[in-house]
Amino acid sequence: MPSDPPEPEKAQSRSGRSGSTARKQDEALMARIAAGDARAFAEVVDTRLERVHAVARRMLGDPSDAEDVAQEALLRLWRQADAWDGNRALISTWLYRVTCNLCIDRIRARREDVSDDLPETPEAATQQQALEEEDLRRFMDSALSALPERQRLALVLFHYEELSMAEVAEIMEVSVEAVESLLARGRRTLKKKLAPAWQAMLPDDET
After folding, report:
1. pTM to 2 decimals?
2. What is the spatial distance between Cα 94 and Cα 89, in angstroms, rounded to a whole number?
3. Which of 68, 78, 79, 80 fits a 20 to 30 Å CA distance from 117?
């Protein structure tokens, strides 16, 4: 195995694969990485980095932290190549799981400095500006970051990454029923947090 992995590049979109085919392809890919094939690792980066980074950004709310987490997850995969067991998880599942754990570690480490409060409701004069796409994205991210970490993780994986209940359960190492419960609680909490401020941002004739 080379001493250092190649520099990560921007990811491309994933292609759909059946379970058995995916495992065989992943095993072959990891065997190439274990043998020191830099192109094999670059293939993993190209097809997974963007999704891993997206999960980390949604979880952490900070692009720089998300980039660090995504790169650390890929480095751990590189180091794992010699001992890879394709029967335990797909590469994508393994990366999601490691990324989520790294994010949770960072969230817990900075918890004392993170406020659970949502942004203040904009003044009437700036209500229209607050409805701009970027403001709404930040507002939603802030509300999402205020959720308990496991509820946030379930919502990110299911709604933003569009994974199935079974896939989310495998990544989080819980039952499908537990995922359903986390999603239900997360949605209820988000609805309560978002509703008052959203109503305040609407024009008077729409409230």
Report:
1. 0.70
2. 6
3. 68
